[in-house]
């Protein structure tokens, strides 16, 4: 079992990122490949989970330990496979998903791709009260490069700029990005959070 892989980002696709480590390129399925698109050629850490079935061996990866832990919890729910768990993490912050489960907010959960009322109820039944370890003091487990301060306007501006560059690299036009940028400028978020928020706006 691979806990994490540390290497350089060589390629990002619509569903995966390729990390090179010791001349080996690892294709890693991830909920948000665009998070890594601005780090091409830069060494980074991706937290991994190896999924083995009779017909497939797949490597899933996440920018934070928090996302990896929640992914493992989600695939333990009846009706949610790895692809479904990736879709949930692609469209929602772990804290939002956990809050919805703890508050039994089915209306919020069914907004995720592939999650109907039956699956939402099953998520609540299986996971409510069992996610405290996911939102523990996760910062102590993260490398410093994954912890970004958002205490100053300069850093907020840099985070938003990195997010827009990543979305541009994925093919979104300047026109589309200029339309949503003003709606994001007053928010205090990390690059990853900006990207997720922007994607939700772009898909409306």
TrEMBL record:
InterPro entries: DNA_helicase_Holl-junc_RuvA_I (IPR013849), Hlx-hairpin-Hlx_DNA-bd_motif (IPR003583), NA-bd_OB-fold (IPR012340), RuvA (IPR000085), RuvA_2-like (IPR010994), RuvA_C (IPR011114), RuvA_C_sf (IPR036267)
Gene Ontology MF terms: ATP binding; four-way junction DNA binding; four-way junction helicase activity; hydrolase activity
Region (Domain III): 158-204
UniProt keyword Isomerase, yes or no: no
Residue ranges occupied by any Helix-hairpin-helix DNA-binding motif class domain in the UniProt entry: 72-91, 107-126
Cellular component aspect of the GO annotation: cytoplasm; Holliday junction helicase complex; Holliday junction resolvase complex
Entry coiled-coil feature ranges: none
Superkingdom, natural source: Bacteria
Keyword ATP-binding: no
Location within or outside the cell: Cytoplasm
Function: The RuvA-RuvB-RuvC complex processes Holliday junction (HJ) DNA during genetic recombination and DNA repair, while the RuvA-RuvB complex plays an important role in the rescue of blocked DNA replication forks via replication fork reversal (RFR). RuvA specifically binds to HJ cruciform DNA, conferring on it an open structure. The RuvB hexamer acts as an ATP-dependent pump, pulling dsDNA into and through the RuvAB complex. HJ branch migration allows RuvC to scan DNA until it finds its consensus sequence, where it cleaves and resolves the cruciform DNA.
Domain remarks: Has three domains with a flexible linker between the domains II and III and assumes an 'L' shape. Domain III is highly mobile and contacts RuvB.
Family assignment from sequence similarity: Belongs to the RuvA family.
Oligomer status and interactors: Homotetramer. Forms an RuvA(8)-RuvB(12)-Holliday junction (HJ) complex. HJ DNA is sandwiched between 2 RuvA tetramers; dsDNA enters through RuvA and exits via RuvB. An RuvB hexamer assembles on each DNA strand where it exits the tetramer. Each RuvB hexamer is contacted by two RuvA subunits (via domain III) on 2 adjacent RuvB subunits; this complex drives branch migration. In the full resolvosome a probable DNA-RuvA(4)-RuvB(12)-RuvC(2) complex forms which resolves the HJ.
Protein's name in the database: Holliday junction branch migration complex subunit RuvA
Organism field: Lederbergia citrisecunda
